[in-house]
Amino acid sequence: MLYKKKHRRCDRLNPYTYDEVTQKTDLKASYSSFGRHTVSVAAPGDLILSTLNTGSYGVMSGTSMAAPHVTGLIGLIKSYLPALTPAATRNLVLSSGDINLAMNGNSLTSKRINTASALACSNKPTFSLVSMPAMLSAGVPAKFTILSVNCDKAVGPITVTSATQNKSFTVVNTDGLATFTYTPTSSVDTLKFSSAAGSDMITLANPQITTATIPTLTQGGAVKIQLAGSGGTMPYSFSGSMPAGLTMSSTGLISGAPTASGVFSYILTIKDAKSIANSMAIRFTINPPPKVTTTALAQGKEGTAYSQTITVSGGVAPYTFSSTSSVAGLALSTSGTLAGTPTKVGVAQYVINVKDANGVLGTVTLPLTITAKAATAKPAVLSFITGLQTGQLTVSIQPSPQRSQPVRQATALRKPLQFQPLAAPVGAPQPPPVTSSRLARPAELKHCTPG
Description:
By secondary structure, the protein is mainly β. It folds into five domains: about 5-120, Rossmann fold (3-Layer(aba) Sandwich); about 130-205, Sandwich (Immunoglobulin-like), CATH 2.60.40; about 210-285, Immunoglobulin-like; about 290-370, Immunoglobulin-like; about 380-445, no CATH class. β9 (about 140-150) and β10 form a beta hairpin. The radius of gyration is 50 Å and the shape is elongated.
């Protein structure tokens, strides 16, 4: 619960005094309000014996129990020290309390009130930044309020140092709450405040989207991008339009699959927990799906090395290639080179798949022709018998480019042909070499008989 009590005289503290509830154990009550720059001081408010509207007494808890303790303390101070000004009374209430570790970071002073200490205060320096602008804008004056006291006395001067401007300012403190105004040169600055009573520091930065660029997308590809922010007070919320096919949640998660390619620019807004907003332009580059631009595969030849590089457009590199087809002796590498030595003649419908960095697939089917290798001349051996001589004649048989069957040719010899006899049976006489001045026609060879 948050108690707000507006004082007629002590109204220069934001301008309300906020009380934080402590328990008997001096710990912060679970239902109590708290805040580094919104709650001023803590006071007992848990299980307090109180009067009831029924005319009896009862135990009650809440900030409504803590507020009377602060009010009573102020009354005692005014009664015991009537000469104190309202500002001095305020300073004494805030500074005279006891440091409570449970209150550290939960209030301006991190203290719980102490009546005895307030009425006999000695050396209780207290320093805290009380208020500041929600955001900084370059060229726009920014106002700060600083508490710098020791018991009922103001402590000054106060020095303020700007990290962005690398400059120090001196602030006069006359009643314990000093006001400092400066003109920032940036929306981000770290300010340090100090005096003989203590020091405080704060970094002010407007919320901003730190995801400056969106990676290149592919039409039809799944997208999951989380926007990030900084500055201001978390948590953040995001809003703005998206390219067709994409959506953005309030937490800044961009998802979906873009349905059109092109370059698009949208204004996206980030808003922090204090509803401070900041906008920036974000550009989306969406490429068309990957497409194989190779329109034909070169003809290959059986037994001859083959290599062809597949080209691609669209999508986002790097690309990964694959194929569901099989051509004996050839293989498609993942980098897009079809290579090898084909071993089978024929025409295949070769399927080429290419996948880009965003996982979008492109497919094309191209015919691949493998022709037969050129025939190699092989010597033909004719065996024949002339008289009692048996020999061999080697004849070249070449394929004719105009005919499907090879043509067997024999020409007359200009010189006698020397025959080497075949091995004779064991025990048979070895005949002398046989010579011939011409090559017998096939018909003559057909009718040769032993003489």
